Amino acid sequence: MEPSVHESVGFSAGCPDCGAKLEGWGTHALVGGSLRWDTGINCPACGCAVLSCGDDEVPAELRARLLADHGPARLQVDPSAGGTAIMRVLRVELGVDLANIRSVLHTVLTGDHSGTLPEMEFLARKLRAAGVDAVAARP
């Protein structure tokens, strides 16, 4: 089994119960072949605690914080790899329709397809399983 890949970020927030300023955290991870996320806050003033997690799409606010804090990772593939194999993986994993798959393929082949490190490593692993040399990396 490949090692997990994760990124975390701290953030300031207001307590949903008392409004006090508090510090929260969020994590996005690739664990056991699945993308997962979680966030948490704990108010020292009133004791309110809120934990959220999921194995669906990472919430936009958490994703934006991770990208701002860590910067985007890029998916890099061997340019000589067959476009058909790459498109097949992208269609399944990203839900890209036939009308848009060529433009997404172009961003992948030129090294412009980016996201959080767990997102790009997830795609790289799927591509490698399909026989395409692929890595997730930061410039």
Please describe what this structure looks like.
- By secondary structure, the chain is an alpha+beta fold.
- It is 32% helix and 34% strand.
- The protein has a four-stranded antiparallel sheet with strand order 1-2-3-4. Strands 6-5-7 form a three-stranded antiparallel sheet.
- Strand 1 (5-14) and strand 2 form a beta hairpin.
- The longest helix is centred in the C-terminal third of the chain and has 13 residues, at 117-129.
Summing up helix and strand content along with how strands pair, one would put the structural category as alpha+beta
H-E order: EEEEHEHHEHE
Strand content: 25-35%
Task: Supply Rg.
Answer: 18 Å
Strand order of the largest sheet: 1-2-3-4
Biggest sheet, in brief? Answer: 4 strands, antiparallel
Mean pLDDT: 93
Contiguous runs where pLDDT drops below 50 for at least 5 residues: none
Could you estimate the helical fraction of the residues in percent? 25-40%
Q: How does the SSE layout of this entry go?
A:
Elements: E1 5-14, E2 21-31, E3 34-42, E4 49-54, H1 60-70, E5 73-77, H2 83-94, H3 101-109, E6 114-115, H4 117-129, E7 134-137
Antiparallel strand pairs: 1-2, 2-3, 3-4, 5-6, 5-7
Name some characteristics of this structure.
139 residues; alpha+beta; three-stranded antiparallel beta sheet; 4 helices; elongated
